[in-house]
Design a protein that fits this description.
The complex is a heterodimer of chains A (274) and B (238). The longest helix of chain A is centred in the last third of the chain and has 16 residues. In chain A, 49% of the residues are buried. Chain A has a single domain, classed as Rossmann fold. In chain A, helix 3 packs across helix 4, helix 3 runs parallel beside helix 5 and helix 4 packs across helix 5. With 274 residues, chain A is of the alpha/beta class. Chain A is built from nine helices and ten strands. Chain B is mostly helical and 238 residues long. Chain B has a single domain, classed as Orthogonal Bundle (MetI-like fold). Chain B contains eleven helices and no strands. In chain B, helix 7 runs antiparallel to helix 8. The chains are: A alpha/beta (274), B mainly alpha (238). At the A-B interface, helix 2, strand 6, helix 3 and helix 5 of A face helix 7, helix 8 and helix 11 of B.
Chain lengths: 274, 238
């Protein structure tokens, strides 16, 4: 368990269960991650209830992106535990650890349940928009072409881009590409969605396009963790805001608590700079 | 026109040259696919996290690239049978055609390996991560996402090597394969028109090269139907 006692973290007094029913969906305990000698995450604790939207803020290099990447094991962390619906889905491994076949399969299974949207979209450029969204259901879930097509149609409609399904991803605008990327992640019917600076590569108009989709997902009760640099959006959409600094959760609470009361000096500095 | 036809058939024996032209084409058609496949194996070995495997591949690549193909051909054709006799086996005794295919494939595989490695490394890391993030296995992400994109990147340099191999196949003449150059030289020496015969053979090599080039362009065009990874990076940058 973490050296930094959770009691030290300034936390809002009021319970913040979000719009869910208070069931803890994702639980992270004492997550530590190093890149060689550099310890990037120094014991992160966080629990997210079902339907909650949590934004993660913090200065560059504070480990927020790394934290998200650890949650779906794109990075292997060294210490700690991640639980999904109360079940341990991954745990810390020493650096340079080579996973066994079974552990790889477990990681794959975990990633099906945790959707991820990247800053640079990362659509597959050699496939049409439709194929991009069908790939997961088809190859990973083993759905029939008809079922995968139906799923892709539903997801692309959800992000408002069904009419673009025969296009090449690269012919779309950045905002549209990111919405397709969201549809691709949703096609796996994940329990949680992670957004890693999903709008940092977009201009304000495209950013709003993507935010609209995120808001709709929030309204539907999707559990989401967002790393973002857009303070207004964070304030607007979050049930809870996490402020990270120096590899730990420095403060956590409602957006009002974080933005207005600024419980730790780091937030003050961070918000002034922005 | 009739005089030119007569010149082609009676002076430079065009039919013999055309018949001999099948050798460069067959040697290349057999050796290049082997080289490309074996090159991929070498590239994956080279990128392996196990040092021994990586070093073995690197050693092979450096030896093959660093020594003349002609010497490799002599060694395979003349020295391997000797080694075979010492080991009491016929397996190492190859006929001149097989020896040529083995050498061309083994030599070019080293070059293709480096091309494949560059191609695989040129595919954006985010592509693999995106594939993994939807629950694909490493194997699926490699075969369905990374490899098809790397293929587009490596195609032009591979076509380049295809043309190079077509011409390098004339080295098979030193092992006595009756290919285009051997035939042209044979006629030239007998009829005392060696320059004409060499020029005629060169023109045929060039026509075959152009055909390879056109073949490459055709495949590239077919693949261009959808975008390329380079474009992806361009768009994502802004």
């Amino acid at each position: 368990m973490p050296d930094e006692a959770p009691a030290k973290i300034p936390t809002a007094k009021l319970p913040t269960e979000g719009n869910g029913n208070g069931i803890v969906l994702l639980e992270v305990q004492g997550l530590k991650k190093s890149f060689g000698p550099k310890q990037v995450l120094r014991g992160v604790d966080l629990s997210v209830t079902r339907g909650e939207v949590v934004t993660i803020l913090g200065p560059n290099g504070c480990g927020k992106s790394t934290f998200l990447r650890c949650l779906n094991l794109l990075e292997q962390y060294q210490d700690g535990v991640v639980k999904l619906k109360g079940e341990v889905v991954s745990r810390g491994r020493p650096e340079g650890y080579h996973s066994s076949r079974v552990e790889c399969a477990e990681a794959e299974h975990l990633r099906r349940r945790v959707g991820m949207v990247f800053q640079r979209f990362n659509l597959f450029p050699h496939m049409t928009v439709l194929k991009n969204v069908m790939l997961g259901p088809r190859q990973v879930l083993g759905k029939s072409p008809q079922d995968a097509y139906a799923i892709a149609e539903r997801m692309l409609n959800k992000v408002g881009l069904w009419e673009k399904h025969p296009c090449d991803p690269l012919t779309l605008s950045g905002g549209q590409q990111q919405r397709v990327a969201i549809a691709r992640a949703l096609s796996m019917n994940p329990d949680v969605m992670l957004f890693d600076e999903a709008t940092s590569a977009l201009d304000p108009v495209m950013t709003q396009e993507v935010f609209r989709v995120v808001r709709e997902l929030a309204a539907e009760g999707m559990t989401m963790l967002l790393v973002t640099h857009d303070m207004d959006f964070a304030r607007d959409i979050s049930d809870r805001t996490v402020f990270m600094e120096g590899g730990i959760v420095a403060a956590v609470g409602t957006p009002e608590y974080i933005f207005d009361q600024r419980p730790v000096p780091g937030i003050q500095k961070f918000l002034q700079r922005g | 026109m009739e005089a030119f036809g007569k010149y082609l058939t009676e002076q430079i024996f065009i039919w013999d040259l055309l018949r001999a032209s099948k050798y460069p084409l067959i040697l290349t058609a057999l050796s290049m696919p082997i080289a490309v496949c074996f090159g991929m194996v070498l590239a994956l070995m080279r990128m392996s996290r196990f040092k021994v495997i990586s070093w073995a591949a690197a050693g092979y690549i450096e030896v093959m690239r660093g020594t003349p193909l002609l010497v490799q051909m002599f060694l395979v054709y003349y020295s391997l049978p000797t080694l075979g006799r010492m080991l009491d086996t016929d397996w190492l005794t190859l006929n001149n055609f097989t020896a040529s295919v083995v050498c061309l494939s083994a030599n070019y595989a080293a070059y293709e390996a480096e091309i494949h490695r560059a191609g695989l490394e040129a595919v954006d890391r985010g592509q693999r991560e995106a594939a993994l993030s939807i629950g694909m296995s490493e194997r699926q992400s490699f075969l369905l996402v990374v490899l098809p994109q790397a293929f587009r990147i490596v195609l032009p340099p591979i076509i380049n090597d295809l043309i190079a191999m077509l011409k390098d196949s004339c080295l098979a003449s030193v092992l006595g394969v009756p290919e285009l150059l051997t035939t042209a030289a044979g006629i030239g020496k007998a009829r005392l028109n060696l320059e004409e015969m060499y020029v005629a053979a060169s023109i045929l090599y060039m026509l075959m090269s152009l055909a390879c080039y056109a073949f490459g362009k055709w495949i590239e065009k077919k693949l261009k139907a959808s975008g390329t990874p380079e474009l992806n990076l361009e768009q994502a940058r802004h």
